[in-house]
Design a protein that fits this description.
Blueprint: E1 5-8, H1 11-21, H2 30-52, E2 67-72, E3 77-82, H3 89-98, H4 102-113, E4 134-142, E5 148-153, E6 158-163, E7 173-180, H5 190-200, E8 208-221, H6 229-242, H7 246-252, E9 254-266, H8 283-294, E10 304-310, E11 316-322, E12 341-346, E13 349-352, E14 367-372, H9 381-386, H10 389-410, H11 419-425, H12 430-433, H13 436-454, H14 459-464, E15 469-470, H15 480-485, E16 494-498, H16 502-506, H17 512-516, E17 521-524, H18 527-535, E18 538-539, E19 542-546, H19 560-566, H20 568-577, H21 608-618
Parallel strand pairs: 2-8, 12-14, 16-17, 16-19
Antiparallel strand pairs: 1-6, 2-3, 3-7, 4-5, 4-7, 5-6, 8-9, 10-11, 11-14, 12-13, 15-17, 18-19
Helix pairs in contact: 1-4, 13-18
Bound molecules: adenosine-5'-diphosphate (ADP) and magnesium ion.
Adenosine-5'-diphosphate is lined by residues 34, 38-39, 41-42, 82, 84-87, 95-96, 124-127, 174.
Length: 619
């Protein structure tokens, strides 16, 4: 094109495209899902803007918030068009080629090891999946603030942009035109596209139409010389009425032939799943909804979900999911990112998936959405962010989320230590639920611990969800409630020890006496546990006691006073022998058995393990 301006793809993007083009990945279908998802995002954006500025939608067809798919079998072109926000020339340059997103290199790296292209959408580079099926792609786009442009590329390291002088005006929005590779011919079949939209785009909230062929019966006269229409119809009616004189009728009777016409066929049902009655939504539908919402197209089901509506001052409906797996960077970005994965809708209109006040940070692993009728529609995102209802929504979401996780534990037969209950409630889905909480704990346990640290209001609820190993847990995970049920009579405190690993802690001299006396001690081996125990002071009226710290009490020891008295001289000498800035005190210990002496940290100071953690952080 004479007016084309040429650009090079950013290096990482170019590598990504090479990988996609040369991929042997068999599931090429995913490109359609990515394009429809982009179209839907673009419509969400224009609809959001239209809340404060009605004019922005334009008039007539331009205002229709829909997605259209069209085929050209002869030219082997598949096109997907939306009436979304569109892209300016600047947008086309940036979004489709020159600015690599943070996910680009992560995805390239991932492709080199595991190679599951299915996850492309999660990395924010879904658009490029078009090159799984096309060798030449045109993106025609019209944004309200700019002219209509064509972006085009054969994925040869470069793309071109030209002001559009060839295509019909789009009004507003984007049309992606895929010139399909020879081996991708199946995407020119209507049946294939219908199947894909059904499978992948069930939860898109805008209508998706296919320009579909339809066989219709057309009546044509049987003989050339048949008389006028009037005569024909009168003859026909007489046949119906009398049914006589058939031979004569046959000759002049109209014939029906098949003819192909085209019309827009609606492919999806746009009733939002969260507006339906939870009783009428199947498990499979929730599972599929999760995959589409989270862009997680693994074949694992979500671990748990909760679908509810809140009434009263603040009304909203919500669906929350616990994903089957934690994303790799969940904790890496923990302190820099407030972004929850919950999508916010106001009266069915998508507002944002970057709201930071919906749930506290530690629940950022949840996927789901909230649709509120109480929040105002015609204000900016910033104003919404300040809205007083959000506090109520947040509070309820936390409560529901914790209930959902609690239920996951309650329903897991592996979790129960109550044998009677187990027998009574044994049901067929026991096996399906077995081990699910352990799975949850392994993926998201750290989030629960961070919650205990950060959320004082829900600390006790969160502590109930805590799992750990102990001297009596036999290599399995156990809970505080289970610990308490095993406490010895007369035992007041919950004992724990912190350190690097269970193996190391098991040999600790701090455990000698406790083990001998059959007290249970919790092992805390995650670095975050040290912080955790600075916040978790008690549980169900029981105090926590670090067994490597001062203050360990093991029931009554009648000899203690006597011993203290008789070794007074020794302890006194010892204390003076060790300079006083090295130790606070020297005492007769009640915690040792074989080991002659041990260094204990003071009640309010850092434990030895904390010293170790702090050192490794500052060095
Ligand atoms: P993501 O959708 O995760 O942002 P993609 O690679 O699918 O990543 O798309 C890249 C960007 O290109 C989008 O963020 C968007 O800005 C732009 N884009 C893609 N398709 C469209 C479209 N149909 N309408 C408007 N913008 C689009
Ligand atoms: Mg996308």
């Amino acid at each position: 094109r004479s007016n084309a301006e040429k650009f090079e793809f950013q290096a990482e993007v170019s590598r990504l495209m090479d990988i996609i083009i040369n991929s042997l990945y068999s599931n090429k279908d995913i490109f359609l899902r990515e394009l429809i998802s982009n179209a839907s995002d673009a419509i969400d954006k224009i609809r959001f803007l239209s809340l404060t500025d009605k004019e922005i939608l334009g008039e007539g067809d331009t205002a229709k918030l829909e997605i259209q798919i069209k085929l050209d079998k002869e030219k082997k072109i598949l096109s997907i068009r939306d009436r979304g926000i569109g892209m300016t020339k600047e947008d086309l340059i940036k979004n489709l080629g020159t600015i690599a997103k943070s996910g680009t290199s992560a995805f390239v790296e991932k492709m080199q090891t595991s190679g599951d292209l299915n996850l492309i959408g999660q990395f924010g580079v879904g658009f490029y999946s078009v090159y799984l099926v096309a060798d030449y792609v045109e993106v025609i786009s019209k944004h309200n603030d700019d002219k209509q442009y064509v972006w085009e590329s054969k994925a040869d390291g470069a793309f071109a942009i030209s002001e559009d002088r060839w295509n019909e005006p789009l009004g507003r929005g984007t049309e992606i035109r895929l010139h399909l590779r020879d081996e991708a011919g199946e995407y020119l079949e209507e049946s294939k596209l219908k199947e894909l939209v059904k499978r992948y785009s069930e939860f898109i909230n805008f209508p998706i139409y296919l320009w579909a062929s339809k066989e219709v019966d057309v009546e044509v006269p049987a003989d050339e010389d048949v008389t006028s229409e009037e005569e024909e119809s009168s003859e026909k009616s007489s046949t119906e009425e009398e049914g006589e004189d058939e031979d004569a009728e046959e000759k002049s009777k109209a014939k029906t032939v098949k003819e192909t016409t085209y019309e827009w066929e609606l492919l999806n049902d746009v009733k939002a799943i969260w507006l339906r009655n939870p009783k009428e939504v199947t498990e499979e539908e929730y599972s599929k909804f999760y995959h589409s919402l989270a862009k997680d197209f693994s074949d694992e089901k979500p671990l748990a979900w909760s679908h509810f509506s809140a009434e009263g001052d603040v009304e909203f409906k919500a669906v929350l999911f616990v994903p089957p797996k934690a994303p790799q960077d969940l904790y890496e970005s923990y302190y820099n990112s407030n972004k929850s994965n919950l999508k916010l809708y106001v009266r069915r209109v998508f507002i944002s998936d970057e709201f930071d006040e919906l749930v506290p940070k530690y629940l950022n692993f949840l996927q789901g959405l909230v649709d509120s009728d109480t929040l105002p529609l015609n204000v900016s995102r910033e104003m919404l962010q300040q809205h007083s209802s959000l506090k109520t929504i947040k509070k309820k979401l936390i409560r529901k989320a914790l209930d959902m996780i609690r239920k996951l534990a309650d329903e897991d037969p592996d979790e129960s230590n109550d044998k009677d209950k187990k027998d009574v409630e044994k049901s067929s889905d026991d096996d399906e639920k077995r081990g699910q909480y352990t799975k949850f704990w392994n993926e998201f346990g750290k989030s629960i611990k961070l919650g205990i640290i950060e959320d004082a209001t829900n600390r006790n609820r969160l502590a109930k969800l805590l799992r750990f190993e102990s001297t009596k847990s036999d290599g399995k995970l156990t809970s505080l409630d289970q610990y308490i049920s095993r406490m010895k009579s007369g035992q007041k405190d919950i004992f724990y020890i912190t350190g690097n690993s269970k193996e190391q802690l098991e040999k600790s001299p701090f455990l000698e006496r406790l083990k001998k006396k059959n007290y249970e001690v919790i092992f805390f081996t995650d670095p975050v546990d040290e912080y955790l125990m600075q916040y978790l002071m008690d549980y169900e009226d029981k105090k926590f006691q670090n067994v490597s710290k001062e203050g360990l009490k093991l029931g009554k020891d009648s000899k203690a006073k006597e011993l203290k008295e008789s070794f007074k001289d020794l302890t006194k000498w010892w204390k003076s022998a060790l300079a006083s800035d090295n130790v606070d005190d020297v005492k007769v210990s009640n915690r040792l058995d074989d080991t002659p002496c041990v260094v204990v940290t003071s009640k309010y100071g850092w434990s030895a393990n904390m010293e170790r953690i702090m050192q490794s952080q500052t060095l």
